[in-house]
Every structure is written in C-alpha cells, then in structure tokens.
Amino acid sequence: MKKLDLYIIRKFLGTFFFSIILILSIGIVFDLTEKMDDFFEYSLSAKEIIFGYYIHFIPYYMNMFSPLFIFISVIFFTSKLAGNSEIIAMLASGMSFQRLMLPYLLSATFLFGLLFWLGGYIIPPASGKLLDFEDKYISHFTSENARNVQMKVNPNTVLYIESFRLNSRMGYRTSLEHFEGKTLTMRLTADRIVYDSAYCWHFDSYTRRDFSGMHETMIRGERLDTIIMMKPDEMFVTAEQAQQMTNPELRAYMQRQRERGTGNLQAFETEWWKRWASPIGAFIMTLLGVTLSCKKIRGGMGKNLGIGITLSALYILFSTVSTTFSVRGVMTPFWAVWIPNFTFLGIGMYLYMKVRK
C-alpha cells in the first residue's frame, strides 16, 4: 500500500464520519423539535432524553442512512480531488483507473464490515431500548391483545386461540389439534386457556375428541393441564421487534415460526435481507460516487453534488417503495430489498465502463 492509497482512504473515511456527525446533528435538532411536546408531557429530564433516547437514536439512524452518507462523502471528496487536478496527476503518472479504485474498494470493504457488525449484532439491542422508549412515551404501538392466533407448537400439533390477553395471560375459545400425517387424531377445545409457568398451560371447560378410523371417543372436564412449547410473549412479536433481534436471533425466530406455520413473516424476512443489502450498498454507492465525480468539470463540485443528492434520494425512495411492496405481499422480501441494489449496480457498472475508457 502506497502513501497515495492511505491519502485517499483517509479522505474517504474522514469525510464519511464528518458527514455522519454533521447530518445526524441536524437530524437530532429537528427530531427534538418535533417530539418536544411528548417529552414535556411526561416531564422527562434532559438525562432521560439523552441517555434513554438519543444515545440509541444516533447509531440506529447512522446505520439506516449509511449508504447515503457513503455516496455523498465519495462525491464530495472525489470532486475536490478532481477539481484540484489530483486525479489527472495520478492517471498521468501511469496509474490505471482500476488501480485508482483500489483504495476506494478497501475503504468500502472496511465500511461493509463495520456496518454489517453494527447492524447485525450491536444496534439491535440498542434499537430495543429506542423502541421501548418510543412505545412508552411517543408512539404506543405495543398491543396487549392478540386475535386469531394459529401456529404449530410441534410438527404434528396446531394451536388456535381466538383472543388472548397478555396482562392476564388468558385466552378464549381455543383448540388444539393433533395430526398423524394428514389425518386428524385428536381435537381438544376449551372455553378458556391460561398460561401458568414453564410452558405449562391449562384448559378450562374442555372437550377432548380422539379419532381412530370411524370411531370417536369424547371426554369432557373442567380443567386439563398440559405442556405446550410456547410462551405468551411469542404471540405479541410485532414487526418493529424484528429490529431488536441480532442476526442469530432473527434467523432462529424465522425458522421457528416457519416450522409452526405462522404467516406474516414478511417484515422479519425484509429486515433480514436489509441487513445484507445495506452493507453491500457501501460498494455500490462507492462505485457510483467515483464514476460520477472523478472528472474535472467547470463550475466546481456543485453539479456533482446535485447529481449525487438526486441519485441518493432516488435510491432511498426506490428502497422504501419496494419494501412496502414486500410488507403487503406483492413482492418477495428478497427481491423487494435487492432490486434497488441491482438497479443501481447496473447504473454504476455502465458509468464505470464509460469512465474507464
């Protein structure tokens, strides 16, 4: 690695972190202005606001908008290099454009690793505290009631609960069905189901039917205790809580829910693919930024910055719209998350081939 590589890497990473500090500072001011009434309503102290909310706000939104920060950073400092004729000097010394891309690639690789580590393992616990704060003082999105819960509690048994209340750990109008292959062998219905502890549930006013060929045996009773490998909290996992799970936790949760036959996993699958697509975006945004700003143009860097901000806005808009399609079931989570990356990668490769010549 030469001094020139270190020079470009320092410029890249220095501009990236400076832009993060600058933009997030502005974002905090606007967010504080918007939420000030909520903070006053609950008489929150400055310490509670800073360490309960904004200390988690910064890494969360830094990770969310990192492709935008990378793109603007590359556009800004590369345009400055081109404006000072430094890139012309590099190429005139015999350096190829591919070789010029090496320090950019190394910087993007570092940011990829950093963003993947933060997004998959560090930020989710912090996001949990951020969302808990918002739920308690701002948005109030957590529900204490669940309706029409249906899931597999083991490979051959399906549980259905029409309504369940978390505060009382009690559900109403429930059924537990056991299958051998595709044949129903047992059906247990009850007016009420109550969670005790350690996966112990009991059915009140129950009716049990056992089926053997054409024969049926029916038993009625007031209370029946049984073990069901499910806790009440599992019925209240919301889409927002996907952001609170680390990568291993998120993968294990989706696998467990698929085995149970639970639907509505689009938000969790979308979050899973976003944790890969967003860090990969570091390479794509770097490629776009270099190819758009490496040529010296009249008027300075204003034109390049304008193009960069426009493309960044289109990227964010494209990602938001495609993610909405995933949540509504119009598009699979994989394609919804990755189509913006594939599209802008195609644009970047076209510009790279054009600039290299």
Question: Would you summarize the structure shown here?
Answer:
The protein is an alpha+beta fold and 357 residues long. It is built from nine helices and six strands, in the order αααααββββββαααα.
Structure characterization notes:
- With 357 residues, the chain is an alpha+beta fold.
- A 6-stranded antiparallel β-sheet has the order 1-2-3-4-5-6, with no helix packed on it.
- The protein contains 9 helices and 6 strands.
- Helix 1 crosses helix 2, helix 2 runs antiparallel to helix 5 and helix 3 runs parallel beside helix 7.
- The chain has 2 domains: 228 residues, no CATH class; 90 residues, no CATH class.
Which helices and strands occur, and which strands form pairs?
Elements: H1 3-41, H2 46-64, H3 66-83, H4 86-92, H5 97-137, E1 145-154, E2 157-165, E3 170-180, E4 183-197, E5 200-212, E6 215-227, H6 247-259, H7 266-293, H8 302-327, H9 333-356
Antiparallel strand pairs: 1-2, 2-3, 3-4, 4-5, 5-6
Helix pairs in contact: 1-2, 1-3, 1-5, 2-5, 3-7, 3-8, 5-7, 6-7, 7-8, 7-9, 8-9
The strand count comes to 6
Structural class: alpha+beta
Fraction of residues in β-strands: 15-25%
For the biggest β-sheet, the strand order reads 1-2-3-4-5-6
Largest sheet: 6 strands, antiparallel
First CA to last CA: what distance? Answer: 25 Å
**How big is the Rg?**
27 Å
Q: Residue-averaged pLDDT, rounded?
A: 86
Q: Segments where pLDDT lies below 50 for 5+ residues?
A: none
Count of helices?
Answer: 9
Overall number of structural domains = 2
Element order, helices and strands?
HHHHHEEEEEEHHHH
